């Protein structure tokens, strides 16, 4: 096959087959003719495909940003709450650590925000895993594993989040 003949290649971004013409570097969207996007090519339907590594980096950055936002990092930076609280036991007089700031819906300790944010991320990853379980190109055992892990993650995240709310607001939903 010569260098400029058409060939069918497997697109790594969505697993679809794409028809490429010419050399490996293809014209990308928005680039002048003869130029290619760094690290990508244009599929037959005009979609720009990115290598697997770049997609994983972007997903990781989005997931980390989501964790920081739902954990209340902005609140922690502005208000500067303590990492963990403490309370004195009325019977023994000893000081016990306190992870959740009781009775204050609009206040939190740093550990409280991080643990709640982690539970939200676990639930979100569970939803992503359940979505991956619907892929028809995967083996049945892999689909069952994804579905089981996804459902378990969502259930654990929900139960723990409700437990956190009940610890913070004792009379909630009673």
TrEMBL record:
PANTHER family referenced in this protein's UniProt entry, alphabetically: OLIGOSACCHARYLTRANSFERASE COMPLEX SUBUNIT OSTC
Origin species: Salix brachista
Protein name: Oligosaccharyltransferase complex subunit
Similarity-based family: Belongs to the OSTC family.
Pfam families according to UniProt: OST3_OST6
Lineage of origin: Eukaryota, Viridiplantae, Streptophyta, Embryophyta, Tracheophyta
Record flagged with keyword Transport: no
Gene Ontology CC entries for this record: oligosaccharyltransferase complex
Transmembrane regions listed in the UniProt entry: 56-75, 109-134, 146-167
Keyword annotations from UniProtKB, A to Z: Membrane, Transmembrane, Transmembrane helix
Main localization of the protein described in the UniProt heading: membrane
Protein's membrane topology: Multi-pass membrane protein
InterPro entries (alphabetical): OligosaccharylTrfase_OST3/OST6, OSTC
Keyword Transmembrane helix belongs to the record: yes
Localization of this protein: Membrane
